[in-house]
Amino acid sequence: MNGGRTVYRGRVFSVEVDNFLLPNGRKAQVTVVRHPPSVVIIPVEDDGRIVLIRQYRHALKREIWEVPAGNLEPGESPEEAAKRECEEEIGLVPDSIERLGAFYPVPGYCDEEMIFYRVSGLKPPAPGSTHKPDDDEDIRSRAMPTTEAKAMVTRGEIIDLKTAYALTLI
Predict the structure, then answer these.
(1) pLDDT at 125
(2) Sign (positive or negative) of CA dihedral 81, 86, 92, 96
(3) What is the per-residue DSSP string for 75-89?
């Protein structure tokens, strides 16, 4: 059958209508969000506290608590993206990076792969670093014990699924 037909192309993702054959031979049509891979970072300070960020999410019209995350840029490795996003979003550079796994948050309609990393050995960036939050981001960071962050999930204060899941990995 024919491939996807792009019906929308934006700055971050595109939307395609795909016609395909199911394993049982039936024809099907689905709408698929094509999204570049992203990284999810769990920053761990030397004392064991993790760093969360609080930022405004326009789709929700509110600020929420999250772990740092972001899309890979063209030609960038996931590890490079994790280090860059860490510096952009919490202002620190990791000395150590550990891949925890890769997951698909909504495989029913989106091909985005989220690659999770634990980063540690956090240090200030080198003088002259140009990494800063994106123009559409207003971010504050806060270090806290993992137990506190997990309790925030239970109390409904952390509503971001990637963050709730990241907390199960540490």
Answers:
(1) 84
(2) negative
(3) T--HHHHHHHHHHHH
The helix or strand, by DSSP H or E, that contains position 165, with its residue range, turns out to be: helix 161-168
Q: Where are the beta strands (DSSP E) in the chain?
A: 5-9, 14-21, 27-34, 38-43, 50-57, 62-66, 69-71, 96-103, 114-120, 139-144
Amino acid at 26: R
> Which residues is 62 bridged to in the sheet?
57
- 58-117 pLDDT, tens per residue? 999 999 999 999 999 999 999 999 999 999 999 999 999 999 999 999 999 999 999 999
Q: Give the global pTM.
A: 0.89
Task: Give the pair of three-digit tokens for residue 43.
Answer: 């920053």
Structure tokens, 82: 């994790």
Domains within the chain, CATH numbers bracketed: 1-34 (no CATH), 36-168 (3.90.79.10)
